[in-house]
Amino acid sequence: MHYNYAIEIGGSFTTIYARNQGFVLKEPTLIAVETNAEGYHVKATGTEAKKLVWKTLDEVEVFNPISNGVIENFEYAQVLISTFLKKIKYKKSSNILVLVPCGLKNEEKEAYYTLFEKFGFNEISLVPSVLCALIGQGVNVLSPKANMIVDIGGATTDIAVVNLGSILKGVTLGLGGKAMDIAVSNALAMAKDGIMIGLPTAERVKNEIGSLYANDTLNMEVMGLDTATNTPKTKIIFSKDVKHVFEAFLDEIIRTINVTINTLPPEISADIIKNGVIFTGGVSQLTGLDDYLKRNISYPYTISEDAENAAMIGAGKLLSDEALLAKVLG
After folding, report:
1. Residue 257 and residue 187 share a domain
2. Cα 49 from Cα 256, distance rounded (Å)
3. Considering the domain boundaries, does residue 75 fall inside one?
């Protein structure tokens, strides 16, 4: 049986890959909804919805209906995914792979099946995104040799140990790019000569000057409100002003990696120590991560060259390799 599409509804982006076509959609996982006494009206989705973040009236809310990989608002999730599928002119009665975090409960998985049944798909299969990310990295996931992957995404960080095509141990942390944005915003507000900024600005700070290098001189000017006077102000932010935010996140991730390795059977942990850990996900592109890992972990590691798209690249390989897909799906 061949599958036509693969989709990942991530904390930052929703990505769709079509068999024999490649990437056909990548848009923010956001929906803008205006509510009133009569109900609600969808103002925008995806890229257009992101333009409205922090720029709307109180009646309009911009949000992701899926939180930490769990469908929080089924109705809005259905509207959002319906819009995306119509954009790619998908074919009903086709088959789809849905990439999901590891560690979902049965009822949370069932919600995904119910969601995609609404769109007329014939066959719906869930596959862990970390498994796809390993495949995207060229790892033989069917091998008896164990591999560890750390996927630092927009909403969560998935840490998983894989062999023989399945996850031996998986941990999902509520640490991702969005939580980093909130922490950056809070850190700047609490600093001396503090400034309050919105999350879109905090995201820019993370992406443009976020760094783990001690002596990085990257800087940028931001606009916000003075925390003391609540009046508009501008301020030059330096990498060093927010470095501690990223260090705290990475330290917790590294701690969880170490705990996970230490709880594995000796033969499995030996594989990990020998083969190393693979880092994927958009936050793995943070400036200085390589240097930080060198100083803080004692085992080999690899940072994916296309960290943000590793999982969907692997899903694309599954779409074109029916034999491998059959083994992965069991």
Report:
1. yes
2. 35
3. yes
User: What is the spatial order of strands in the sheet that 39-45 belongs to?
Assistant: 39-45, 31-36, 60-63
Tell me the pLDDT tens digit for each residue of 271-322.
999 999 999 999 999 999 999 999 999 999 999 999 999 999 999 999 999 9
List the structure tokens of 119.
Answer: 């769109």
| pLDDT tens string 34-68 | 887 788 889 999 999 999 887 766 778 999 999 88
Per-residue pLDDT of 136-161, as tens digits, reads 999 999 999 999 999 999 989 999 99
Q: What whole-number distance in Å separates Cα of residue 36 and Cα of residue 38?
A: 5
pLDDT band at 247 (very low <50, low <70, confident <90, very high): very high
Beta-strand relationship, 13-18 and 31-36:
unpaired
- What tokens appear for 204 in the block? 């820019």
- For residues 319 and 175, membership in a common domain is answered with no
Is 278 inside any structural domain? yes
Neighbours of 76 (CB within 10 A): 20
Question: In sequence order, what are the beta bridge partners of 67?
Answer: 70
Q: How many domains does the chain have?
A: 2
**Do 171 and 197 fall within a single domain?**
yes
Cβ neighbour number for residue 108 with a 10 Å cutoff: 15
Q: Range of 316's domain?
A: 5-29+64-134+310-329
Answer yes or no: do 108 and 230 share one domain: no
Nearest 10 degrees: Cα torsion 200, 202, 207, 210: 180
**CB atoms inside a 10 Å sphere around CB 250:** 21
Q: Residue 315 falls within a domain, yes or no?
A: yes
Residue at 293 is within a domain: yes
The CATH number assigned to the domain holding 277 equals 3.30.420.40
CA 68 to each of CA 65, 186, 191: distance values in angstroms, whole numbers, following the listed order:
10, 21, 29
